[in-house]
Amino acid sequence: MGMKMLRWMVEVTRYNHICNEDTRHRFGIVTMADKLCEARFRWYGHVLRAHNATVCKIALNLDVPGKRPKGRPKQRWIDTLHSDLK
User: Fold this and answer.
1) N or C, which terminus of the chain has less Cβ within 10 Å?
2) Compositionally biased, Basic and acidic residues: which spans (predicted)?
3) 35-38: long-range contacts (C-beta < 8 A, 24 or more apart)?
């Protein structure tokens, strides 16, 4: 649900200087980033419990031979999990 609709339901305008976090807390709504983080950890739990012969477990432990291209390293799924833990 959009913040504009939530503020309308509480009859709060931007001129009241009430931050979005307070409005979300009032309704008990978490941010989309928190929901995505929760879903990633839930999926990671499924992957860890899977048998070693499954595709997801093989892909998690896969080490691709060869050199990486120049530039910034690509974001990997496991790197995202590590940053979520911090």
Assistant:
1) C
2) 76-86
3) 37/84
